[in-house]
Amino acid sequence: MTDSIDALSAGSSPVLVTERLRLRPWRPDDADAALPLYGDPQVVRWLSPAMTVVHDVAAMRSVLEQWSAEDARLTWPAGRWAVETLDEGRLVGAVALLPLPPGDEDLELSYQVLPTEQGKGFATEAARRAVQRAFAEGVPELFVVARPANEAGAGVAKRLGFQWVGETSKYYDLRLQTYRLRPAELT
User: Structure pTM?
Assistant: First the structure.
């Protein structure tokens, strides 16, 4: 089932809705809720060097302001979303579709979930919705890159139908497992 778009946010990515979740653009006032996610070394270790641990609310607010400015310049469907529960509006994680460095020719799907919310299917559900929207917009393929030890990240990719295509050092100057998904392969 492809869920609905709830609304368009001015100058940013649309709000996407699933059965349990709302994916919406980040706002600077999300800093308090985002800090437990991006301030957690166990979450951020999989994001470096693109991101380092955020140490306080002021720094988190600054990161969110930077993301908002960057998202306004990205070509849709690239963007970043806060993932919150529909029933309580509680932040549980994040999803992003961003161009991969160094050449920005490949589009990467990434996802993070608060440690207290892991194991509930939120990453797979939110990522699936972002992927559906990207493919509906004509994106021919998406990639997930994961460090070899990031079994949870690779597991989400596999549940969505991403296929392992090998290891590469092309992105971020790190040895990474690379997974690719084309529209017909989405599960």
Answer: 0.88
